[in-house]
Model the fold of this input.
Amino acid sequence: MTVQSGRAEDEGSILLLTLGYALLALAVVFVCVCATDLYIAQKRLDALADSAALAGADGFTLEVDGEVVRAELTDAGVQEQAAALLAALPGDAVLVSAQTPDGVSARVTVAGAWHPPLFSPFVPDGVPLEATGTSRTALQ
Done:
């Protein structure tokens, strides 16, 4: 008869375990969704920085030195082309810097912010993101 009374004491504990595991599973799903969204936001910003650098590499001027013609990039030309591209595309990315380190390459840095798609106490409210892209002009 003591066996039956022991079963009666254990009857409600499985429900608490099930609820605990369900809450843990929801927390893991929320964190995974937020981590995936953060990864995609960084990849989009990387692609935007690459596109802006490619556009900046088109901001060259042609220099004629005797019979030799070469394309020369300037910081102003790279800045102008990269800013025009960012203005034409939707989004909240801002141009941090656009320059040419060697007169042949365009290096563009853009920044943005990521906010989680789901509210979760395990994920920060916002994360600043930054991406740099480099492109060389085709005419050297």
Remarks:
- DSSP finds three helices and five strands in the chain.
- Residues 71 and 139 are 6 Å apart (CA to CA).
